[in-house]
Amino acid sequence: MARKMIFFDIDGTLLDHDKRLPASTKEAIGQLKRLGHEVAIATGRGPFMFKDIRDELEIDSFVSYNGQYVEWKGKPLFVNPIQTGLLQQLTEYADEKGHPLVYMDIKTMRSSREYHVHIEESISTLKVPHPAYDPEYFRDRSIFQTLVFCTIGEESKYRERFPDLDFIRWHQFSMDVLPLGGSKAKGIEEMIGALGIDRSDVYAFGDYLNDIEMLQFAGTSVAMGNAPDVVKKAADHVTRDVGDDGIWYGLRMVGLL
């Protein structure tokens, strides 16, 4: 088989419901690489939040922050930070609404509040601690993604107020905030364009709302069995649950293993 490029989401795709890497997934990715395929990660997480996974799987290329920061073999390939002026406006508006923010660059993340229960409850699902307090963190560095913490149903207020930003819910208490048009699909497009890889040779595996554009973009896409129906409908194939050897089964389903 000719060389293919396969992108994997992390949470709910590579990692199971307990944030563990199934042994079958690790073995499957090792086999892909031994067959000569390129393997990369495509995630909403920042680079500092999944270094351990990259090290364990020996993957050195990734699309992070839902496409806003892309690395190939350890070197930056595409960067798309949020404009500081927009972040200032977003900060002021969220403060009026009583909604905390978390600012994220390539090294770490910082919170606009010393502590907030919505930050704790959502961030803890990623097995990372409540970020440190620094409400000025966005002013003098490149911020690739921001998190706004509000309940389901409040998205429309932000979308109406900030037409130059995209808001994507990933938790009942939190939304990803990206530059308008930002997505994993955009990051993948930038990577394969630079590498000269045809879109038809791209495979993608994902399980949640921020994976929809990626699944629609890839030449062949696979939704995890644990994905919501709207995500499954965006994919070409649906594999088993992540906890039921979903990656291994999906790779066999599409003929890569």
UniProtKB/TrEMBL annotation:
Top-level lineage group: Bacteria
Gene Ontology CC: cytosol
Coiled coil location: none
GO terms for MF: magnesium ion binding; phosphatase activity
InterPro entries: Cof, HAD-like_sf, HAD-SF_hydro_IIB, HAD_sf
Protein name from the UniProt record: Phosphatase
Source species: Paenibacillus darwinianus
